[in-house]
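INPUT
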Amino acid sequence: MKRFLSGITPSGDGTLHIGNYLGAVKQFIKLSVNHDCYLMVADLHALTTIQNKEQLQKNTETLILNELTLLVGELGLSLPNITFFRQSDVPLHAELQTILNNVTPLGLIKRAHAYKDKLAKETALDDINMGLFNYPVLMAADILIYKSDLVPVGRDQKQHIEIARDIAERFNKIYGSGKRKAASGKTVFTLPEPYIPEDVAVVLGTDGKRKMSKSLGNIISIFEDEEIIKKQVMGTFTDPTRIHADDPGHIEGNMVFTYLDFFGVKGKVEELKGFYRRGQVSDMEVKNYLFESLLKYFTKARESYKELNSNPALVQKILQEGAEKARSFAEKTLTEVREAIGLTNKYSFFSYN
Ligand code: ADP
Ligand code: TRP
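OUTPUT
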């Protein structure tokens, strides 16, 4: 079975919106049918921006609950093929990052978007921390430590996967031949491929212009109160050229129909599209249908949310089992890495085997 790792950072406030669901969590669920899945909450990555204890705790708890609930809502508590864990529960990621730093060219990291964008905005270099600069190397460690064949992410993360691949190639080249070859005789790292389905690579926000993102205030929430979700749906961009309900309307670029293609019943959506084009249905009616469809689609998840929220011991147990399984995989990889680079020698007294 092929394997993948993916992670979500508990930035913003830790809640997930339908863009995160379509671009990330839904892909994890689909792939879990025939992949060995490692899914982590990337709390170490959040340290680049969140430097407040209470906020980090709260965000991480929120994201754990949001993501786990979506997974459990569709797959049940047994979460087949899924190892769900918190990044900081597997400190070996940080050890691998330290090692990978040494095979990573500075130029490669200087070209990374997160750092470049920040550099363009900030006047002082001192306002950029090393965690942000080095973010792609930690991400490479996350991916490579599980020998991931693929990495499902939104398009904004594509460059990071390419960097991870470059780093893996360099490591394999430097340590993959002659005496320095890994004990198994094979190269240590698998080269990961990004997995980015075109239709959800970038889910646009309710403004119809920019990527759906918490920080842009153009989201549709999953676990908020119904009134809030209703408000978000009612504020969704439709067709600005259409003034009256009996004017013919456009479907293309109309966000209500974009979301309905994912969450509505196909036959009903096609029928509504026909009515809309002919000016036989109002914006209000299609928005109401979207609102109902969303609530229906996420009914089970919204129920699981209540269940898991009132049972922290259960959430803890899932995370603990996940961390143990992830650690055991990561330890095997680190053993190979240590051997390949020469950290083990005749005085070594400890082996993870
Ligand atoms: P946000 O931009 O709302 O803060 P994150 O950056 O935390 O979201 O993203 C978490 C995951 O969800 C990542 O895998 C990211 O690629 C994916 N994702 C986020 N927003 C979208 C979107 N609008 N369309 C598709 N995927 C998205
Ligand atoms: N950087 C990713 C994001 O912001 C989260 C992440 C951390 C990740 N490590 C990863 C994603 C490894 C995929 C693989 O969404």
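end of record. The domain at 223-297 is CATH 1.10.240.10 (Tyrosyl-Transfer RNA Synthetase).
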